[in-house]
């Protein structure tokens, strides 16, 4: 059946980070346009690829990929808490199909997701419960990370299952593009931070407040440039978007996450989610990918992009 892709950047600084009113208005309009495209597609099912930011997944047990059979939103930053409308039976069937297709996928019956999954839906619809959902976590923040080739193969396997499901499936990616948030490294972090990266589930209000203040301060410094944060790189983002639009997804196979971190920032590998989503769509043949919005917003430490893509014609 019909497949489509919806991709959008997220950022913890969207609510309180530094940006002009014109930029905020344009972002709001971009999400409205994206919502209209999603509503027009009228999906029976949403499959979403997204990262985590050491809120739901930790180094105590860090899978490369994980499907949520049940999931709840933690409500970090400007997002809401609550239960995601997970299509649990479909999630189980998809996990079984991926194993049969050669993908070693983890499953969670109690997945916890952060703003990386839910923020874009709340910005589009005011709620993350608009469509029945299968959440798929991709580790984009805790090295060693999965390769771009592996993310592509995951996406293609998801696409094959979706295309055979008999449903209209909207495949989503949230993350990226170039951005360099002040995420600590477990290699160099002090012991108390290492412990949070290993097992930091449900931190105290004081710890949460300190984390929020640290990121807000980093965003304020990023407006004028600061040596500890790479600036958002619109040229890198443009090249990435154009490569998605060309559809030559195997060209990403030679890209390394180390290279992406060096050029697009510590959060740059979140584009793994975009590669997986577009790879899923590619199993239906050629597609047309529209760039609905893009802006390098330094105060949000985010290359904010929004895209919608549909197959040109189903592959026979």
Automatic annotation (TrEMBL):
Q: Name one GO molecular function term.
A: 3-carboxyethylcatechol 2,3-dioxygenase activity
Superkingdom of origin organism: Bacteria
What's the Enzyme Commission number for this chain? 1.13.11.16
- Matching SUPFAM superfamilies: LigB-like
Any idea where the Extradiol ring-cleavage dioxygenase class III enzyme subunit B domain is? Answer: 7-304
Keyword set for this entry? Oxidoreductase
Name the UniProt record assigns to this protein: 2,3-dihydroxyphenylpropionate/2, 3-dihydroxicinnamic acid 1,2-dioxygenase
Gene source species: Paraburkholderia metrosideri
């Amino acid at each position: 059946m019909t497949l489509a892709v919806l991709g959008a950047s997220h950022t913890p600084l969207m609510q309180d980070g530094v940006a002009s009113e014109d930029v905020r208005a344009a972002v709001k309009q971009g999400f409205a346009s994206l919502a209209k495209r999603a509503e027009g597609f009228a999906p029976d099912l949403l499959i979403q690829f997204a990262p985590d930011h050491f809120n739901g997944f930790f180094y105590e047990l860090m899978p490369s990929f994980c499907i949520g059979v049940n999931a709840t939103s933690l409500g970090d930053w400007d997002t809401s808490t609550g239960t995601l409308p997970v299509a649990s039976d479909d999630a189980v069937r998809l996990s079984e199909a991926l194993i049969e297709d050669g993908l070693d996928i983890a499953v969670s019956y109690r997945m916890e997701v952060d703003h990386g999954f839910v923020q874009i839906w709340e910005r589009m619809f005011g709620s993350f419960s608009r469509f029945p959902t299968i959440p798929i976590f991709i580790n984009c923040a805790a090295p060693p990370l999965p390769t771009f080739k592996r993310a592509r193969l995951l996406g293609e396997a998801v696409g094959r299952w979706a295309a055979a499901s008999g449903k209209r499936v909207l495949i989503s990616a949230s993350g990226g593009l170039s951005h360099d948030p002040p995420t600590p490294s477990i290699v160099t972090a002090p012991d108390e931070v290492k412990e949070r990266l290993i097992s930091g589930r449900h931190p105290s209000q004081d710890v949460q407040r300190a984390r929020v203040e640290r990121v807000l301060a980093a965003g304020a410094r990023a407006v004028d440039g600061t040596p500890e944060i790479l600036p958002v790189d619109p040229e890198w983002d443009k090249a990435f978007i154009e490569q998605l639009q060309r559809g030559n997804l195997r060209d990403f196979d030679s890209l390394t996450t180390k290279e992406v971190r060096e050029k697009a920032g510590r959060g740059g590998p979140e584009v793994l989610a975009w590669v997986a989503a577009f790879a899923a769509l590619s199993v239906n043949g050629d597609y047309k990918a529209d760039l609905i919005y893009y802006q390098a917003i330094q105060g949000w430490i985010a290359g904010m992009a929004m895209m919608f893509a549909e197959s040109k014609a189903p592959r026979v």
